[in-house]
From TrEMBL:
Its main location: membrane. The lineage of its organism: Bacteria, environmental samples. It is a multi-pass membrane protein. Keywords: Membrane, Transmembrane, Transmembrane helix. It is found in: Membrane. This is DoxX family protein. GO terms for cellular component: membrane. InterPro entries: DoxX (IPR032808). It comes from the Bacteria. The chain crosses the membrane at residues 43-63.
Amino acid sequence: MEKLAVTLGRCLLGLYFLMPGISKVTSYQAMLDYMTLHNIPMVDVLLPITTALQILGGLCLIAGLRIKEIALMFAGMTILINLGMHDFWNTYPEGNQGHELQNFVKNLGIFAGLLVMSAGQHLPQWRLAKA
């Protein structure tokens, strides 16, 4: 049961990053605009990097590859995104501070799960693909 729980959790965390990565490809300009609105620097550089990391890292978590490294990378990324993009303490035109607060707190939970995954000594796992 433990292997199943860890594998399912890892796959769901992978999906949590994979889907937004794919959506950044299909709504690229909207994401550029959103990042610019939140005063994120170097959006032309950071958006493609973030997109690639989310897609490739999400696939790696789902496949069971480099789990600890990917989880730690996503943990750092989640905190940076939280501080820059879900800054509920700032107001924006047509913004929703309650929604941003909800996303901020939700991402803290995701961050916690990623930290646990990155620190696990002997995480039981079923691999979906052999490396």
